[in-house]
Design goal:
By secondary structure, the protein is mostly helical. Helix content is 61%, strand content 0%. The protein has 6 helices and no strands. The protein has 2 domains: 52 residues, no CATH class; 29 residues. The two termini are 33 Å apart. InterPro entries: Anit_sigma_mycothiol_RsrA (IPR024020), Znf_put (IPR027383). This is Mycothiol system anti-sigma-R factor. It comes from Streptomyces brevispora.
Length: 106
């Protein structure tokens, strides 16, 4: 997506790293670039606002649930593999919580 206007930081870069911005997982200098971009680009600002609202809704609705330790470990392991550039195994991350319905484990 692009608004068609020239910006110092391209729309594609902003949208590719939107969740890093939302989670404040990027350097302050990059956050400043993104904030400047949102001030100039309404389509990206709208996308940011939508994703921010979804994130708040998920936190409000699901933030109280405890994550099983084995699931957390598997997810964090995959994140580490992706960040290091290594190949990620094709098998799915599954939940081994006996209280969950079978459909939630797939």
């Amino acid at each position: 997506m692009s608004c068609g206007e020239p910006h110092e930081t391209e729309c594609s870069e902003v949208l590719d790293h939107l969740y890093e911005f939302l989670d404040r997982e990027m350097p302050d200098s990059d956050c400043t670039k993104f904030e400047t971009h949102f001030g100039e680009c309404n389509p990206c600002l709208e996308k940011y606002g939508l994703e921010q609202a979804v994130k708040k809704l998920v936190k409000r609705c699901c933030g109280q649930d405890d994550v099983p330790a084995d699931l957390r470990s598997k997810v964090m392991g995959r994140i580490d593999l992706i960040r290091s550039g290594q190949a990620v195994p094709e098998q799915d991350v599954t939940v081994s919580d006996p209280e969950l319905p079978a459909a939630a484990k797939e």
